[in-house]
UniProtKB/TrEMBL annotation:
UniProt-listed SUPFAM superfamilies: Winged helix' DNA-binding domain
Protein name: Transcriptional regulator HosA
Stored SMART domains: HTH_MARR
Record PANTHER family: MARR FAMILY REGULATORY PROTEIN, TRANSCRIPTIONAL REGULATOR, MARR FAMILY
Species assigned in the record: Kibdelosporangium persicum
Length: 155
């Protein structure tokens, strides 16, 4: 059995700081989102994905993959969003078991109203506390980790 590669003091500080920041930042931004727009983080994720999708529609399977959710979990959430008039669900023409989620006019109005307030919250609680150099370094670091996590390992 190999020895654990323990974190050194600098790595430990960075890791613990990241974890604490992630929890505090997500909690604050999500509180702001709910207060300002009445949307939850998953609501916002679904609506923003649909607003950016071609013809404002997306397969449920693809949307679930994007959100890192199971199709079942997303399907239940979409049902709740349907009851609020934010999205509709259509059968897939090429897959009888599949569903396409479609942004409604009410959903479009909701995301258009929420987005400016949401980005202001992100800016106020995150970017306003960083230098441009820190933002660039963070962008490089996050992309390196995301690339490592999403690139298939050939072993």
């Amino acid at each position: 059995m190999t020895q654990p590669r323990w974190l050194d003091e600098t790595e430990d500080r960075a890791w613990r700081g990241y974890r604490r920041m992630f929890l505090l930042l997500n909690a604050q931004v999500n509180r702001d989102l709910a207060r300002d727009s009445g949307l939850s983080e998953p609501d916002y994720d679904v609506l923003s994905a649909l607003s950016e999708a071609k013809n404002h529609r997306c397969r449920l399977k693809k949307l679930a993959e994007r959100m890192l959710w199971s199709q079942s979990r997303l399907s239940h959430h979409v049902t709740r969003m349907q009851h609020r008039g934010l999205v509709t669900r259509e059968d897939c023409a090429d897959d009888a078991r599949g569903a396409t989620i479609v942004l409604t006019k009410a959903g479009r109005r909701a995301i258009e109203a929420a987005a400016p307030l949401h980005v202001e919250s992100v800016r106020r609680h995150f970017f306003d506390h960083l230098t441009r150099e820190q933002v660039e370094m963070l962008g490089d670091a996050t992309h390196a980790v995301v690339n490592a996590l999403t690139t298939p390992n050939p072993s």
